[in-house]
Amino acid sequence: LKQYNAHFANKVKETARFMGWTGQKNRDGRILLQRIGQAGREYNSLLWARHEFNSIDSQVGFPFEIVTIDDWRFVNELSYIRDNEPLYKPITLRVIAPEREVLRGTPEYYEVSETELDSFEFDYQVSNPIIEGEMAISTQLERIFLLEIQKYNRI
Predict the structure, then answer these.
(1) Quick check: 100 and 90 in contact, CB under 8 A?
(2) How far apart are CA 99 and CA 103, in angstroms?
(3) What does 81-140 look like in DSSP terms, one character per residue?
């Protein structure tokens, strides 16, 4: 299967690096990323989604059977994919990531990019890093891909 890994946050992180961000996702780094992301969304609520799909469409090998997109954080981004990208059927996956806890106790912990999807019903949920007793995230993802491919092949 032809697969492509896309990242909604690529341009956010590129902008942050231009501003001197070292890549650390400590409290200051996360706040910077939140603010850059939000500034872009205030300019155009689909800025990051549109950019990434334009990037996917221009990749060698397009179209792909599987496209994974990380850092999806807003319901309108999923709506954009469903409404404008007929080649793809989105399957939603929540990654439980304890590193977000670096912001606990700060206003940024409750920033919209961290919370908008809290009550969203995802198709799947995985843990990263591994919570005791769970399989590695790559194994979790592989199983999900296989399940979805089996569903697709039955259609």
Answers:
(1) no
(2) 9
(3) HHHH-TT-----EEEE-GGGGGGTTSGGGG-HHHHTTTT---SEEEESSPPTTPPPHHHH
Tokens encoding 26: 């400590």
Contact 116, 78 (CB under 8 A): no
CA-to-CA dists, residue 104 to 100, 144, 153, angstroms: 8, 30, 43
Rounded to whole angstroms, how far apart are CA atoms 95 and 70? 9
What are the pLDDT tens digits along the chain (155 aa)? 788 888 889 999 999 999 999 999 888 999 999 999 999 999 999 999 999 888 888 887 788 888 888 888 999 999 998 898 888 888 898 888 776 677 888 888 899 998 999 999 999 988 776 556 667 777 888 888 888 888 877 76
Task: Identify whether 86 is preceded by a cis peptide bond (ω within 30 of 0).
Answer: no
- What does residue 67 show for φ and ψ, rounded to 5 degrees? -125, 125
CA distance 123 to 143: 13
